[in-house]
Write a structure and sequence with these properties.
Elements (H helix, E strand, L loop, with lengths): L1 H8 L4 E6 L14 E7 L3 H11 L5 E5 L13 E7 L8 H11 E10 L29
Parallel strand pairs: 1-2, 1-4, 2-3, 4-5
Length: 142
């Protein structure tokens, strides 16, 4: 699994947002070209573990709470988003994908890995099939 995670992070640069950071296992696998990681983990116990792990890595890491459907980054603010085996557990995968699209800078990278799911994958996101959605916790439009 470590090789899979390392490959998922390979070649990333700049600011990376990781959705579902868990206990921070990926933090030590970030390439040296990553300057900052914003790690989103909604579960309080795992978030605490991730914060501890973050202090043991050379990369600047900010661990925050919140759902994938309402990311706290500004529009176009990140160079990459990584979602490893997490989107199958969000309440509304379509809204989460629109959030990812919103925060990615032009030309940015989105990398994901998925567990095998019984539900079908959502349609791909294009500017033509995006619909507006208001984020409940913070009120911004996606």
């Amino acid at each position: 699994m470590a090789e899979h995670r390392r490959a998922l992070l390979a070649g990333l640069t700049g600011t990376v947002l990781e959705i579902g950071a868990g206990n921070g296992l990926d933090f030590g696998l970030c390439p040296a070209t990553v300057t900052r990681v914003v790690a989103v983990e909604p579960e309080p116990r795992l978030r605490g573990l991730a914060r501890t792990t973050a202090t043991q890595t050379p990369v600047l890491i900010e661990v925050i709470g919140g759902p994938a459907e309402c990311l706290s980054a500004a529009d176009g603010a990140v160079d990459a988003v990584v979602a490893s085996q997490v989107l199958c557990s969000v309440r509304d995968e379509g809204v989460a994908l629109r959030e990812i699209h919103r925060i990615l800078a032009p030309g940015a990278t989105y990398r994901k890995s998925r567990r095998q799911l019984s539900k079908p994958s959502p349609p791909s996101i294009t500017p033509n099939n995006l619909t507006r959605h208001q984020c409940t916790p913070c009120g911004h439009q996606t």
